[in-house]
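# step 3/5: fold
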Amino acid sequence: MPGVGKIVAASIISNVPELGYITNKQASSLIGVAPITRESGRQKGKRMIQGGRAQVRTVLYMAMMSAIQCNSIFKATYERLLAAGKPKKVAIVACMRKMVVILNSMLRDGVMWDKDSVKN
């Protein structure tokens, strides 16, 4: 996948060996890029990311900074979120979650990157 280099691949393989054997929701929660709601009764809170494996999340953040520039799928998603009024960091984390879901699906199905098979 454009934006995922040797360092990211090695980090994901060594720190998240479950990837490819779990659901997309579990994968994003495991890495810590899933939005967790903070609500109780009538109290409405913001959704935040928390928990997960911080080392992988840090590596994915840097990979996403690169992928936004060289991968048309993530660039379009990032720009769409910014146009919708999302803060930049929220848009980057949403793209990170999309990357985790795509990588999990690629590992599960045993396929290589194909930008035509990815939905925006």
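# step 4/5: annotate
Residues 6-117 form one domain.
# step 5/5: archive (pending)
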